[in-house]
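Appendix C: a fully annotated inverse folding record. The material below is reproduced so that readers can follow the format used throughout the book. The structure is listed first as tokens, followed by the designed sequence.
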């Protein structure tokens, strides 16, 4: 059975950094809004390169990947967190990239085969979580991985020093170096050891690429190694990671998670990816209100840098990745001009923020909306807008399936006919239908209908289309 429930985790913060490149580094000229500045966030699509809803022309750009020159944007992938230095136009939808830079969080081998339905994995002693928007490159599920497979991880560290992945890429070589970034703790310069996240690091035989070969506590570094024994990483090289250099009036757009929130005054302030964000009476809140800002909330902030180094937010957009509604079905119709499609009669909108990815065997890269075709199978992770319309936060083309999938808040429950609706689509069951509780354990039909609450419970269904816009369910889950 295709049925697979992915538990959701908040996408949390990582200190996004870029190192010097062929243009001489990342200090940018004073600009202000619509001037030259810095954009940090996940790649959502290509056709040039789209980050934080901005389509950057990359024709004249230089490219850096893990501190090494890259040839073009084709060396990047959807879901990877990148930093773009460039000019954003006044429409806030287009821009021109000067430099595109990517650095992974870690790269290392799988040591234990993940179990079926796994949503977390351990690499280099780090716990990595998947969520609804995590993009997998080179494999379909964690259970497809085997010990020795090497993964490159992009994403964000959370408050527990665990990684919330935006993308996982299966590398071709099992001899790739081990790489891990983090801040030095418990530095012992005599024995040449320190703690990095959940690992011990022995750098007694390493090349230390810092001033006078000295390291300091809380210093942000990248450790490269070939050997991990028990919980100790024996470093081959320790490289300080240079944070983004900002000057007053720089335009700055950043995606990340709220930490260290201070909402005791009228204008809230918070930390975001190691930057301090302040608001004022002119700050605009999108897809939410000021009181929705809280710890571990994912946001996108646009603003300018003050003389004291803080980021004054002109706008804050709240983003959602937790417990997303889902529609998976064959494409009935496509409007290429409006960038909409129909899945089982439901119109799905896309916009410049929608993550577009090809998970089918065609594996087109780059992949664009215009490559979709009627009759193909598509998976839309969506947001239900206030007017009831459906907006895809992630839209992927997949290989053909016989079952369709729907997930949203249940309505029109009828325990007499054992039916209900999702997205106003009738869902019916029979003796072959499998019912699962929130722990993915089988339950009876009666127990399921006793547990669900109309307009409250989120239900996920797999089923086959019948006539008259009806789904015959094969599996039904009460989501957590």
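Designed amino acids, in order:
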């Amino acid at each position: 059975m295709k049925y697979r429930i992915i538990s959701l985790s908040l996408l949390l913060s990582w200190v996004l950094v870029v190192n010097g490149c062929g243009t001489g580094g990342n200090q940018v000229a004073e600009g202000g809004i619509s001037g030259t500045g810095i954009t940090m966030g996940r790649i959502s699509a290509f056709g040039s390169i789209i980050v934080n809803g901005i389509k950057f022309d990359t024709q004249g750009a230089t490219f850096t990947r893990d501190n090494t020159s890259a040839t073009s944007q084709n060396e990047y992938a959807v879901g990877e967190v990148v930093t773009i230095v460039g000019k954003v136009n006044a429409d806030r939808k287009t821009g021109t990239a000067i430099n595109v830079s990517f650095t992974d969080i870690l790269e290392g081998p799988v040591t234990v085969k993940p179990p079926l339905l796994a949503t977390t994995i351990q690499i280099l002693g780090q716990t990595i979580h998947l969520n609804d928007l995590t993009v997998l490159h080179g494999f379909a599920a964690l259970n497809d991985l085997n010990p020795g497979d090497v993964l490159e991880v992009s994403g964000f560290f959370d408050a527990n020093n665990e990684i919330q992945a935006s993308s996982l890429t299966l590398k071709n070589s099992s001899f790739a170096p081990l790489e891990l970034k983090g801040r030095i703790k418990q530095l012992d310069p005599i024995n040449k050891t320190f703690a990095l996240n959940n690992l011990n690091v022995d750098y007694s035989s390493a090349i230390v690429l810092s001033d006078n070969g000295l390291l300091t506590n809380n210093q942000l570094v990248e450790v490269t190694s070939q050997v991990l024994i028990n919980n100790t990483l024996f470093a081959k090289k320790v490289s300080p990671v240079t944070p983004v250099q900002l000057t007053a009036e720089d335009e700055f757009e950043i995606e990340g998670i709220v930490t260290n929130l201070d909402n005791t005054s009228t204008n809230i302030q918070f930390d975001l990816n190691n930057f301090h964000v302040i608001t004022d009476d002119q700050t605009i809140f999108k897809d939410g209100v000021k009181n929705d800002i809280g710890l571990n909330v994912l946001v996108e902030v646009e603003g300018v840098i003050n003389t004291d180094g803080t980021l004054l937010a002109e706008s804050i957009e709240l983003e959602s990745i937790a417990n997303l509604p889902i529609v998976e079905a064959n494409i009935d119709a496509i409007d290429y001009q409006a960038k909409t499609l129909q899945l089982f009669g439901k119109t799905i909108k896309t916009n410049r923020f929608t993550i577009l990815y090809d998970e089918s065997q065609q594996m087109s890269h780059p992949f664009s909306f215009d490559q979709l075709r009627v009759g193909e199978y598509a998976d839309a992770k969506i947001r239900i807008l206030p007017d009831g319309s459906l907006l895809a936060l992630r839209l992927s083309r997949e290989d053909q399936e016989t079952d369709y999938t729907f997930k949203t808040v249940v309505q029109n429950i009828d325990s007499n006919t054992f039916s209900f609706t999702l997205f106003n689509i009738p869902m019916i069951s029979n003796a072959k239908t499998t019912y699962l509780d929130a722990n993915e354990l089988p339950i009876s039909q009666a127990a399921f209908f006793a547990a669900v609450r109309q307009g409250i419970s989120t239900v996920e269904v797999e089923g086959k289309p019948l006539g008259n816009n009806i789904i015959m369910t094969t599996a039904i889950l009460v989501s957590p």
